[in-house]
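# nightly structure sweep
# worker-07 picked up a monomer target from the shared queue
# config: single-sequence mode, recycle default, output format = structure tokens
# input follows
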Amino acid sequence: RWLANVTTKRNTNNFYTTKELYEGKLRLIHRQGEYIGPKESPYSDDLINLIGWVLTDGSLRYYDLPGKPRNGKPWKVTLTQSYTANPNKVKLIDELLDKLNYNYHKKDKGSSYNWVFNNDLANVLHKIIPNKRLTMPFLLSLPKHQLEILYNSVSLGDGHRGGNAILTGKSDQADMIQILNILLGRTSNINARDNIGRKCYSDKISNKKGYVEIKNKRYSVSSGRR
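# output follows
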């Protein structure tokens, strides 16, 4: 179905199937519009911020205990950030966690910190971003200012090109990030990068050389202003 004007006048909108548009008279199809979204959110701004960090620099782990009642259930959440390469990001995460009421312990791994949370947070995030994946119901539950918070925190974790694009290794998540851009009123494209086997620099690892081998196809999701 397509949203189109009934006449050449504005604000005479109706939905038409592709067949109806081909067989009927010429109608103007809408290219863009402002997304309003819900007025209120079931989540706090700080939790949305944390979700962005977990999606990019964290892990949501599950019990792998075949035959046990806990098998497949959320176990723990871990955030990792290099304090040698990204001290400002470490500060942002510490300040954020001070405002949230989730228990965690912070481990010094030599050149990076690990923030490890128990299954209280894991159970919460499993319901919102199961298997550490963005979903349409979650995005559509957020008012516009929280969509902006989510984009900014994801961009801090996996942004490149000066924050104008986000990298992900999952094609379905590239789609979700593109939808996030569209809901924010931005233009967006996805560029698949098949660089498997090549080596690239990463500031998220502790070795001195800082180079890792690319093992999966990457997707770059651009963000532009209309």
